[in-house]
Amino acid sequence: MNREDVEKSMSSQKKAEEGRPFFPNHFLMEVIVAYLVIGVLITLAILHPFPLHEKADPFKTPEGIKPEWYLLYSYQLLKYVPKVVGLLSMGFFVILLFLVPFLDKSPHRHPKKRRLAISLGLFVLFLALVLGILGFFSESTRTVLGKKYHFDIKGIPHQVTEESYEK
Fold first, then answer.
1. What are phi and psi of 60, to 5 degrees?
2. Could you give the number of structural domains in the chain?
């Protein structure tokens, strides 16, 4: 090593020794700043609240509101059966899915030799797909092949005529 390299390493080592460590010095300053920002935001939220819409009524769902696609089938199922039956069936289905590995004693793993399990799975997928499509179209008015249809809450289409549309 030449003399310049030694001096550079000594000066960088001296700077490192003069610096402050990240923890606890810098970390504590960051925590203090974070608490100050949170305190300012809470104070502003209390003193100048943002105006919202009317208060929500947990017993009345606004018209036309629907869940995301991955929950739409269960939402639509609740329209066809009593709420208690729908909720219990969904809970039962989750428990059944959890218990399937323990209940299935078949030594076969190939899908062709497990017709009951595959058929049951395909039936559940088909049912979820149909309920999801019905849920997507329910409570909306759409034009199909030039005719206007209103899909009721259960997803059943009713043709809209000019007289019924004006009402």
1. -135, 115
2. 1
